[in-house]
Amino acid sequence: MLGTSGVVEPAASLGRVAKWAGATVIEINPDETPLTPYADLSLRTGASEGMRTLMD
Predict the structure, then answer these.
(1) Which of 22, 29, 32, 45 is the most buried (most CB within 10 A)?
(2) Interatomic CA distance for residues 28 and 50, integer angstroms
(3) For the whole model, what pTM was predicted?
(4) How far apart are alpha carbons 18 and 6 in whole angstroms?
(5) What are the angstrom distances between the C-alpha of 21 and each of 10, 24, 47?
(6) Which pLDDT belongs to residue 3?
């Protein structure tokens, strides 16, 4: 989950729906969000740095 606070719909539900469908959910956000409990991996950083971390 990148680019959402996890508060505003419809984006707020995407992480939950993905998790229920069996997807691996990765959250990249400097702060915890309402979607954090659904994440398999949470990276507490900004989007650019988080994506670099995943790509390395």
Answers:
(1) 29
(2) 6
(3) 0.81
(4) 13
(5) 17, 9, 24
(6) 66
Nearest C-alpha neighbor of 1 from the set 13, 20, 22, 49: 13
Cα 2 to Cα 53: distance, rounded to the nearest angstrom: 13
Residue 4, pLDDT above cutoff 80? no
* pLDDT greater than 80 at residue 49: yes
The span from the first CA to the last CA of the chain, in angstroms, equals 18
For all residues of the chain together, what is the average pLDDT? 89
CA atoms in the 13 A half-sphere facing the CB of 51: 5
Q: How far apart (Å, rounded) are the C-alpha atoms in residues 25 and 43?
A: 11
Token couple for 50? 């988080």
Give the largest Cα separation in the chain, rounded: 31
